[in-house]
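Standup notes
- HV: blocked on the assembly model, inputs below
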Amino acid sequence: MVPELGNFALILALCLSVLLAFLPLLGAARNNQVWMSLARPLTAGVFVFLSIALVILAYSFVTNDFSVQFVANHSNTTLPIYYKITAVWGGHEGSFLFWTWMLGGWMLAVAIFSKSMPDEFVARVLGIMGALAVGYILFMVATSNPFDRALPLPPTNGADLNAALQDFAFIIHPPSLYMGYVGFSVVFAFAMAALLSGRLDAAWARWCRPWANAAWAILTVGLALGSWWAYYELGWGGWWAWDPVENPPMITWLLGAAMIHSLAATEKRGVFKSWTVLLAIMAFASSLLGTFITRSGLLTSEHAFASDPTRGVFILGFLGLIIGSSLVLYAIRAPILKSEFGFGSLSREVFLLANNMILVVASSAILLGTLYPMVYQAVSGGDLISVGPPYFNAIFVPLMGILAVLMGIGPIARWKRTSLAHLRQQLTKVVLASVGLGVVLPVLLTMGVPLATIATSILALWIVFAMLRDIQTKIANKPTVLAGLRSLSVSYWGMTLAHLGFVLTMAGACLTSIYSVERSVLLQPGQSTELGAYTFRFEGTRPVQGPNFVADEATIVISRDGKTYKTLYPQKRLYTASGTPTSHMGIDGRVLRDLFTTLGDPRENGAWSMTIYIKPFVRWIWIGSIFIALGGIFAVTDKRYRQFKVKRAAAVSRSSATLAAEGSQ
Amino acid sequence: MKNLKLYLPVLVFAALAVFMWRGLYLDSRTLPSMLINKPLPEFELRSLEEGDQLLTTADLPNEPFILNIWGSYCLPCLQENPIFMAAKDQGVVPIIGLNYKDRDDAARYWLDINGNPFDLVIVDDSGRYGIDLGVYGAPETFIIDANGVIRYKHIGTIDYRAWEDEIMPVIRSLREGGNS
């Protein structure tokens, strides 16, 4: 009975979102205040009923209601309670409900934090998001209802949650990734509203920026968590595999990065307007594409959900309708969005444009590599091929190198026009210092330095020095350094933090790729092996009983220069309900390097095969991502977004109402 | 329509959508193999264990068995491995591995780390035999009967459901057919 209530809540949410998709938009078109004012209450209603559905699904998990097919497939009585609740997003149907609920959450946030925007605009934004909700909920009800029953013969126990998912990261990675992903639909809705009203000015950019930054920052966290999880859970010591399902969020992230930079130019200078809108559409399209790829069975991958062509057709139809119509709308309306000002051939605008080009090229290359096997198959009718990491690395690494060079110059260049002399005066010392130290430091610290290390250190120092130089220039005429630092805006600090994060992530990724070493060995208890400066002694294994698994736990004592340094306990687990074995790593994580051990298989005489890795600087990748995300969040909290004067909003609202009235005559 | 280049994004998107739509229906896993009910093509290939001895179809089991195309580079193969390991531990059915377009050291290392479910690993490093078999890419799984005839082909990952619903019924029916 309770699951039927969940189904009912879902249908009510569908009805309300259908109303939301029509009435406020019609109201905005006809300047009907009453219909426009329905947007906020309808949004609240959609969110409430989606929440009820979500809570009921979680309740079904907690109460072991295996008559619900989705629960039977993804839970088990022995599953710990925290995995029972989070198993809600452990499979296709539930995770889609969760995804839709996230959309509802963003809609509610827009409804609440939009007091400064004109009603007409809010009505359009919420109406468009309501149309998205219609598509999502319809998809759920029609093809993947999480409340479907396994009647008349429900299983006595569930099939258990996929063993690879039973990990702390599973509790936090999907929510953050989804939240970031879905956040891009807010920016999409803003862009559509701008196209519909034909009004895209500095005020629009100021409303839009916090949402774009927030969605992008949260997506950064989601991606970083996914990479960290892959690193310590999957056991091959990798942190990024260019998997077909990892790629779409990366594409969205790159396009999002391009968009927040382009938005900055739109707000400050009134340029790149139609380009910003196009980026918003593309970023959102790439997030839908990610959904399509994971849920249609188009590509096989680690993350792919069970495939079903009807789902694929539905999502593709939805994708075609939403993205196709928004791109047509763009083509018709973009000529209205003229730039207000021009800019010189050497200006911050130009550097931002170059940044955008690189990010868009990088994301297109990833898209091509991801879809190429499918396109090839469709054209040739045969051969399933795969494009491996070498392709992606060969394109992505040089592009990020160029981006790093630009990242040093961009913030120092002035808006509108900057002179070569200015850049030279600001950056000559920076170039000399970064090249000099970039070569000297690695050579002093290690012997036989590869060129890649030197390139990495030069680029990293270049960005950091340029950043310091910029801060120095900005605070030069302030009485004290502290007063100077205080005078810089929160968004400026956000940008600095995010760029610093980029440096850390870039340095971490490059250095760990260059310096990681690994060794796979077969050890009997008491035997040891050496790797780098460390000796790893295998003390033997002992059986361990977990809540829903049994495991062999190895004891590996690590010593350095004869002194015992750390003991690691990697496990080989067997999840009893599904009979799935998994490896649980033993990791000693430090800022400068990780020691990483995985347990293989037992052999004769108590011997085990195992692999040992030393991964220098690998943590920097995720520390850097945290900085990037914090930078984005910082920028959101800048007070100029909050203290937007109500008076002016009212004036704007009046003037647009007048415009609309004139338009309808 | 005065600014035609603004329609470029929608045209690119339309082309992409057409490909994706075709991609849905060209799902390789549903393509029938031309080789079903034909004898397994002859081969003369190395074994992964003993470097110089050449294997032929005569070295294959005289009962129904599974031929799995895999490689150390292949992530889905890692997902299949526990299923094959369980089948091996319970002695359900002999499993022969065809190491496809791989390096020997990488393949051995992979088997060491993840466990070796195969009774025999045949090396096809050039991918020549893969062409005879019509292999799209790893992983693929064939079922061969006691007479060396290909009876079933699964393209893509074998998960628990595919194992229970597709592979095992074929194996069982082949065994029953052999007894009668």
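- HV (later): unblocked. The CA atoms of residues 143 and 152 of chain B lie 5 Å apart. Chain B has a mean pLDDT of 82.
- Next: hand off to the docking folks.
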